[in-house]
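Running this now, will post back.
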Amino acid sequence: MSHEFSHTEIEFTTSPVSVREADIIIVCVPTPVYDDHTPNLEPLESAAKSIAPYLRKGGLVVIESTINPGVSEDIVLPILKKGSGLRGGEFYLSHCPERINPGDTTWTLESIPRVVGSLTEDGLKKTIDFYESILKTPVRAMGSLKEAEAVKVVENSFRDVNIAFVNELAMSFDRLGIDVVNVIEGAATKPFSFMPHFPGSGVGGHCIPVDPYYLISYGKQNGFAHHFLSLARKINNYMPIFTVDLLDKELRGKEMRLAGSKVAVLGLSYKPNVDDTRESPSFEIIEILKSRGAHPVPYDPYAAQFSEAESLGEAVEGVVAVIIATAHKEFLSITPEYLLRKGVRVLIDGRNCLPKELFLTSPLSYAGIGR
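Update: finished.
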C-alpha cells in the first residue's frame, strides 16, 4: 500500500512507481553491518531493485548511502541495468556521500560541502549542477566513483582512530593519576598540527562505529589487512567494559559489590540531545551490568521507549551508583548534593561532562574516563 502527501511543490510517497516521473533519483538507505561486522548491503540492493523498473533513459541515480569503494559499479550498476533494461550509457550513476550532523544548527544540510563522483563526465556535471542548485557551498568533483565512495569511510575512520587513541590514553592515564582531559586541552593550545578528540564510555551512531568495517572488509577482499583500523575498533569496542570496570573499582572502594547493586544508566542515545540510539554503547553497558549481576535502570528523556524510569529523579531514586553514558543537557546540572540526597554513593562520568573538582570534594566516589 502506498501513501502520498502533498504540500506546495513537494510530494511524499512510498510508491516506487513515482520514480518514472523523476529525472534524478537519490538513494539514501541505511548500510549497517552484520553481527560479524561485515557490510550489510541488503537495504541498498533492495532500493536499487525497487527503482530499476521505473528508471528512464537519461535518468540520474545518485547513491548517498555509505558504501565500500566499488559498490556502485559492482553491485548497484548491474541491478539497475538488469531491472531497467537500459545499457550503462543510457542513464547516469553517481555517488555523493551523505553528510549530516544531527542536532547541529550551524552545519546544516545546505552549509556542509559535498563531494561527487560519477561513471562519466556528463554524469559528473549533471550531478554537480544538481547539488549546487540546492546547496550554499561548493561541490568538489572526485576523480572516480570509487574515490567518492572512499571519502565517507575515510572521514569516519579518521574520527574512529583518533577517538581510539585518546581512549587508550585515558585507560593508561587512569593508572598514572594523570587527567587526560587536561592533557588534551593543554595539547590543543598548539595552534597547528593537533586536533583535539576526547575519550568516553564508547562510540555510537550509524557512522563512526560502522564505516571502518566497510574499509576493513574492502581491504580484506583485495588482499590487504587494515591492522590500524581493526585495532581502533577493538579499543573503542572495549570502552563499555572499561566503564563498568571503573564502577566496580569505585564500589569496592566503598566496600560494596557490583553484583546485586542497582545502577542508573543515564543516556541511551549515541550523542547529546537527540533521540538516535543506533549503535549506542549505552546498551552494551547495560548488558555488561546485567551479566555481572547488577540491576541497571536505563533512563533517557529522548528515548522513553527504552527507559525504565519516567524522570531523572525516578531513575536515581534508590540506586547506589550512576553512570552518565550520554551528556544530555538535562544531566549537566547534576550536583553531588542531589545524588547524595537520593542515596547515590558512586558516580561514573562516562562522558567527562560534569565538573570533576566539585565531585572530588564531596563524599561521593567519582571517576571519569581517564580523569
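The longest strand covers residues 114-118. More later if anyone needs it.
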